[in-house]
Design a protein that fits this description.
The protein is an alpha+beta fold and 216 residues long. Helices cover 65% and strands 15% of the residues. It has a four-stranded antiparallel beta sheet.
Length: 216
Amino acid sequence: MKKLIVLLIVIAVAVYGGSPYYSAYQLKNAYDAKDGAAIAAAIDYEQLRPSIQTQLTDQFANTMTHYPLVAELGGAPLTEAANGFITQAVAGAITPQNIEKLINTQGQANSATKELAAAWAIASNQVDLKNLIQNLIIQRGDVNAVVQNQMQQIMKKQAAELEQQAAQGSDSDKPTLSYCGINCFTISGQVKGYPLTVEMQRDGLIDWKIVDIVLP
């Protein structure tokens, strides 16, 4: 009887400890099978959306510290306009419907994804700052008009780059899997050539949800 109890405990511990590895295996299989619904269902959107938004707004704030002239010309309205676009882009892209579509097509750009890519570009110092300064001067401080114009240009550029990356970028054969706490687990690797780290959180005893994605 004691041996049976010990065996059951060992099995329970193994299942508990091994559950995130199995979840990671299921996610990889779903991605390879272009099963967007399975991956979309594995995401905690209430945690992922604010994390992505914070990452982008923080990146934009850091980028602006390197360009004092742009910050001086645009001031608070520029930050508000950029952050507003980021918020809108994240809300539109980080949804079950868009995630499912993105996985099903393996990265083919759609309007929501283009907006998120544009938000990442402006936050990550991928904009044409010379053109941005010129537009700020020409538009006489109409920051919203400048940002919208810049976004349209970036979206066209990013859409082409996304489609090229989706076609040519490689995925990690063996992502790095590791615990980051008793209820925290990370999957790090390359998706279409972009380095990404996915953080999962325990949901119950053996189920896991994606709660964060660290952007490149």
